[in-house]
Write a structure and sequence with these properties.
GMP Synthetase, Chain A, domain 3, Rossmann fold, 2 domains, 9-stranded mixed beta sheet, 3-stranded mixed beta sheet, 13 helices, binds adenosine-5'-diphosphate
């Protein structure tokens, strides 16, 4: 993704009133204007448009805000303090840094509804990023259908707990060089995860804050489908740099994808783009692509919603069998059409977030 057509530029141009929950008092507006002068050097956009500033409140002469950043972006706090010190009325700014220890870039994979290939995309994208040389973690937070462990070849394995000076932490498992944690690992095999309300909130929050990931370039979060409680909690609690939406071509007329995009924009998280899954079928004999669910749907959605179309994944039976046996197709055949699309998406994401550049230079 060249920086000129950065997804952040498009999203921020379309949705300049992103911090929708703010009461725009004069002082609050002054703070936002001040913060908009601070540019994140890698992403080349201001920290407000990037969704890094949330829960902004001004009470009398004091500013309170949450700063959602990766491990390598803590320096922004100093810049904020210095920028806010130029406001004559501001006596003190209280900045609460929200981060996942050790993690640079957190990306979420979402879909308007289940069954469109969200987990398939999460797993294959994790592998593709790892093929770029990145250290990758995958958090399966799909409380309604946590099937990432199976897709990565992990059976029902116990989760170890580590005592640390900051409290107890889940130890992630590892498969194909990718660190993995899943809500499914906490459930009885074949039993539904019947968590609701506050319990769901607590477990989901624990999953975000209490996993000992170690150093990661990318953490991918496989979100539950839709725009329910669990999804909103995860999005609000985590320093997500951007969301990737998975849709199938026939979803173009259906409002669930649009609803998801509006939800992310409302909570201030940038939407990086759409991946169209099951775009076409390649004929086994002649290699001709057939768009069995219609064509142009993903592009139409992307244009309408001002987000890039990141890639189109064909229907390939090996995706299904690879998922069943825990061998993602991008790993077993990175030069297949499917593998190449995921590698290209991973390369463009990595060009945007620049997490592996120091490794490439070595
Ligand atoms: P979701 O996470 O959205 O519920 P999954 O990733 O679990 O969806 O995919 C649902 C089913 O569709 C799985 O059996 C998966 O193997 C299959 N599938 C997903 N994408 C493709 C594809 N491009 N070609 C063939 N099968 C696919």
């Amino acid at each position: 993704m060249p920086s000129d057509d950065s997804p952040f530029e498009q999203a921020s141009a379309e949705n300049s009133g992103r911090i929708a929950d703010l009461q725009m008092g004069d002082r609050q507006q002054a703070v936002i204007n001040c913060l908009k002068q601070i540019t994140e050097p890698i992403l080349k956009n201001n920290i407000v448009s990037l969704g890094m500033v949330r829960n902004l409140r001004v009470v009398d002469n004091y500013v309170y805000l949450r700063l959602y950043v990766g491990q390598h972006q803590h320096h922004l706090e100093e810049q904020i303090q210095s920028a806010l010190s130029t406001l004559s009325w501001c006596k003190k700014a209280y900045i609460h840094i929200c981060t996942i220890p050790g993690v640079k870039t957190t990306l979420a994979i979402s879909s308007g509804k289940g069954g469109v290939g969200k987990s398939t995309v999460s797993v294959n994208l994790a592998v593709a990023l790892s093929l770029q040389g990145a250290k990758v973690g995958l958090l399966d937070a799909d409380v309604y259908g946590p099937n990432v462990p199976q897709m990565m070849g992990l059976g029902q394995t116990g989760v170890n707990i580590l005592d640390t000076p900051n409290g107890q932490r889940f130890v992630p498992l590892e498969a194909h060089g990718i660190k993995l944690m899943s809500v499914g690992l906490l459930a009885e095999p074949d039993h539904p995860l019947a968590w609701r309300g506050p319990v769901l909130h607590k477990i989901v929050t624990q999953f975000i804050h209490e996993v000992a990931w170690g150093d990661l370039d990318y953490l991918l979060i496989d979100l539950p489908p839709g725009t329910g409680d669990a999804q909103i909690t995860i999005v609000q609690e985590s320093p997500i740099c951007g969301v990737i939406l998975v849709a199938t071509p026939q979803q173009v007329a259906i409002s669930d994808v649009r609803r998801s995009i509006y939800m992310f924009r409302q909570v201030g998280v940038p939407v990086l783009g759409i991946i169209e899954n099951m775009s076409y079928l390649i004929c086994e004999h002649c290699g001709e692509p057939t768009p069995i669910f219609g064509s142009g749907g993903g592009q139409q959605l992307a244009t309408e919603l001002y987000v890039p179309l990141l890639g189109q994944i064909p229907i390939d039976a090996r995706i299904c069998t690879g998922g069943d046996i825990g061998q993602p197709l991008t790993l077993t055949d990175p030069t297949s059409t499917v593998g190449r699309v995921f590698v290209q998406i991973a390369a463009s994401l990595d060009a945007t977030f620049d997490c592996t550049s120091t490794k490439r230079q070595k």
